[in-house]
Design a protein that fits this description.
Distance between the termini of chain A: 30 Å
Oligomer: heterodimer
Strand content of chain A: 5-15%
Order of helices and strands of chain A: EHHEHEHEHEHEHEEHEEHEHHEH
Helix content of chain B: 10-25%
Number of strands of chain B: 17
Helix content of chain A: 40-55%
Radius of gyration of chain B: 22 Å
Shape of chain B: globular
Distance between the termini of chain B: 47 Å
CATH topology of the largest domain in chain A: Aspartate Aminotransferase, domain 2
CATH architecture of the largest domain in chain A: 3-Layer(aba) Sandwich
CATH topology of the largest domain in chain B: Rossmann fold
Number of domains of chain B: 3
Number of helices of chain B: 7
CATH class of the largest domain in chain A: Alpha Beta
């Protein structure tokens, strides 16, 4: 049986160019980038070239890019590091209700340490109202952390407007950009962000590598301790082959972004219009918002999303009910309930995330499989 | 489509259901393996000893084992989450029954509402027409009566039909018990032959979500977790003729027929005869007071026969470990109730337990006592 992949927001395959560069680096560039000698210098050159590639994709200065083990570490470092660096007794943190677990759980940890946390609601379109950020500001606010694009819905948050409000209050802004990088244009200066989290494996690089953009002058306390790597931001011998892979992936994304986002948006629209046109009782969650081109989240009324994911997998289509990090959870998605969806509708929702390998034929085959599965599931639920 | 429809195997990670998966694959069937996530052990941490993981319901280790077996036998595998239904339909009723002074059988509720209902529905959802489990029992279709019959397992020591009396004809028609004709050593041998990672794993406990069989500790922890203060659950221990002998710490600590843990010295052995949730009284008496000659079974489910219009002879089991006793079944005015009249009075007929009627190996049907 052929298997088709519609879960690119969970992770992406490693791009052939990325794989080739990474493997050759693994085999040849084995020096420690901190070593003085020839071998160390070779590794250091690769490391810094990758830093320039990552910086170029987000229009940053390479010195502002810190490599991490992935998006989760970048989020932890940004949130914990900024709040702790502020060193204020009654510190206050503002996040949104639809952040990824990496930010939500970091905020919850700070809460246990005595930090006050405000979780901003989102409207039915899945976006934060910048005015809510203004209203949530307190004298003790030390950080605003709002994601760029939501992993489950693809909704893009009004980051530039939020940045203006944060900066008026003298508060830095962290943006979890894991689901936006490579899907939409990112310019940290135009957006006005102070910290920006990135992940390799959402971008056709391997798992286990990511980066955090830290604007020059931003106070950041380290969250792990060791040597003087990454300008004392993040200790540990750099994973040069994976970082090189991230660099190539960023360069590739920059080259293909405009054409690819147009192609994916057309496929996404084809998927949505065919599903909504052929299958009654369906709709797109967060449809009214500005969204990343590859993501759609659709409800199928009176369908159990968990059963649907299995049924589709057995037909060869890989989709998900939401974040892979919360698969198997019994509580409905916190993102969908934050939109105001009922628990039933949230449980009946599926996320489809397209990518470079997705074709129109695959989309049409998916729609056929969805139609068949929904018909079957609705028929048996009537008999049950 | 029908001949290519898969069979959904309920895989617990134990040796029995793992062998079922391997066996059906070997027989050439298309299989989907699924593990039901029913209970989160982390929820009541005070009950979880840090060591053990195996043999307790839905531990991560069991899921790991099931996944590994699925990989070994080469079938698609999924974990499906029924925690909400399990709590509503098995755990909560289990606790309520104890608080009401009865002695529940959660495995039967789990079979009725989870394994042969919710799981069957999930199987349906993914296009599987049949389910298979590692239960020791047999099903066959009887042409003469036009009914699906349930029979005791060939391995009498492993027979699980006592817990399966609630199965409907529709459920039986779609269920396979591939181990019904085998004895346990044969199953282990088969598992070893297929090189299954779980071949020598120990058997599971009786009540999967109650660690070490300590249901009183489970109930205290569960009620605390739910924020329910166990209300005044102490009362008097009285004799059948009304004399007060002492006090107790809650009727849920007692079950009919119990002798130990009464905390009362007496020249004659004393047994719990009954418990009364209204007065919180525990009534105790001598062994003879436990004997019961007749009782009514409610919420009857008939399996191998349609019912009893005229009196029918049967062997009746009143708890899992009961050997079964000769009795006559009488219809009552209510089609859902049957009166059981034993040839010889039986000891400790306990409210909340199941009563299952057999004719030799055949399960005629069953219902709830009291």
């Amino acid at each position: 049986m052929q298997h088709f992949y519609f879960d690119h927001n969970a992770t992406t395959p490693v791009a052939p160019e990325v794989l080739e560069t990474m493997v050759s680096c693994l085999g040849q560039v084995y020096g420690n980038a901190s070593s003085i000698h020839y071998f160390g210098q070779a590794a250091k050159q690769k490391l810094e070239a990758a830093r320039r590639q990552v910086a170029a994709l987000i229009h940053a200065n390479p010195a502002e890019v810190v490599f991490t083990s992935g998006g989760t570490e970048a989020d932890n470092l940004a949130v914990l590091g900024t709040v702790r660096a502020a060193g204020r007794p009654h510190a206050h943190l503002i996040i949104s209700a639809i952040e990824h677990a990496a930010v939500l759980a970091s905020a919850a940890q700070l809460e246990r340490e005595g930090v006050a946390v405000t979780r901003l609601p989102v409207g039915s379109e899945g976006t934060v109202d910048p005015e809510d950020v203004r209203r949530a500001m307190r004298p003790g606010t030390v950080l605003v952390s709002i994601m760029h694009a939501n992993n489950e819905l693809g909704t893009v948050q009004p980051i530039a407007e939020i940045a203006i409000i944060a900066h008026e209050a003298g508060v830095p802004l962290h943006v979890d950009g894991v689901q936006a990088l490579g899907k939409i244009a990112v310019d940290v200066n135009a957006l006005g962000v102070d910290l920006y989290s990135m992940s390799g494996h959402k971008l056709y690089a391997p798992k286990g590598v990511g980066a955090l953009y830290v604007r020059k002058g931003t106070k950041l306390a380290p969250t792990s301790f060791g040597g003087h790597h990454e300008r004392d931001r993040r200790p540990g011998t750099e994973n040069v082959p994976a970082i090189v892979a991230l660099g190539v992936a960023c360069e590739l994304a920059g080259r293909t972004l405009a054409a690819e986002s147009e192609r994916l948006a057309a496929l996404r629209d084809r998927l949505e219009s065919n599903v909504l046109g052929h299958i009654p009782g369906t709709g797109v969650n967060g449809a009214g918002a500005n969204r990343t081109p590859n993501t759609t989240n659709v409800y199928f009324d009176s369908i159990d999303g968990e059963a649907m994911v299995i049924a589709l997998d057995l037909r060869g289509f890989a989709v998900s009910t939401g974040s892979a990090c919360s698969s198997g959870a019994i509580t409905p998605s916190h993102v969908l309930t934050a939109l105001g969806l009922s628990a039933d509708r949230a449980r009946s929702s599926l996320r489809f995330s397209l990518g470079r390998s997705t074709t129109a034929e695959q989309v049409d085959a998916l729609v056929d499989a969805l139609e068949a599965s929904v018909t079957h599931l609705r028929r048996i639920s009537v008999h049950a | 489509m029908p001949e290519s429809a898969p069979i959904a195997v309920a895989m617990s990670g134990g040796v029995d259901s793992s062998t079922v998966a391997g066996l059906l694959v070997r027989q050439g069937h298309k299989i989907v393996g699924m593990t039901m996530q029913l209970w989160n052990q982390r929820r009541l941490p005070e009950l979880a000893p840090e060591t053990s993981g195996h043999g307790r319901c839905c531990s991560l280790d069991d899921v790991y084992d099931a996944r590994r077996v699925a990989e070994q036998v080469g079938i698609p595998y999924y974990v499906v989450n029924f925690e909400k239904q399990f709590e509503e339909q098995v755990v909560q009723p289990f606790v309520d029954e104890y608080l009401a002074g009865r002695t529940p059988v959660p495995c039967t509720l789990c079979n009725n509402y989870i394994k042969f209902d919710r799981f069957l529905e999930m199987a349906d959802s993914v296009g599987a027409h049949q389910i298979a489990t590692g239960h020791y029992a047999r099903v066959r279709f009887c042409d003469a009566s036009g009914r699906y019959q349930l029979l005791r397992a060939r391995d009498a020591s492993k027979d699980q039909t006592y817990f399966l009396f609630g199965l409907t004809q529709k459920q039986l028609s779609r269920t396979l018990f591939p181990l019904g004709e085998m004895v346990k050593p044969e199953v282990r041998e088969l598992a070893r032959g297929m090189d299954l990672a779980v071949a020598s794993k120990g058997d599971s406990q009786e009540i999967c979500f109650v660690p070490n069989g300590d249901y009183a500790a489970f109930m205290s922890a569960y009620l605390k977790d739910k924020g329910i203060e166990p209300q005044a659950t102490h009362g008097e221990i009285v004799t059948t003729d009304g004399r007060t002998l002492g006090e107790h710490q809650g009727i849920h600590h007692f079950t009919v027929g119990q002798r130990r843990g009464l905390g009362i010295s007496s020249p004659e052995p004393l047994y719990v005869i009954s418990t009364d949730p209204q007065t919180q009284r525990v009534v105790v008496g001598g062994n003879d007071d436990l004997l019961c000659g007749r009782f009514v079974v409610r919420q009857m489910n008939w399996i191998s026969i349609e019912g009893v219009d005229t009196p029918v002879r049967a062997q009746v089991k009143i708890r899992n470990k009961h050997a079964g006793a000769q009795a006559t079944l009488h219809a009552t005015g209510d089609p859902n109730c049957v009166e059981v009249v034993f040839d010889e009075p039986q000891r400790a007929v306990t409210p909340g337990q199941g009563a299952v009627f057999y004719d030799g190996d055949l399960v005629l049907g069953g219902g709830w006592i009291g």
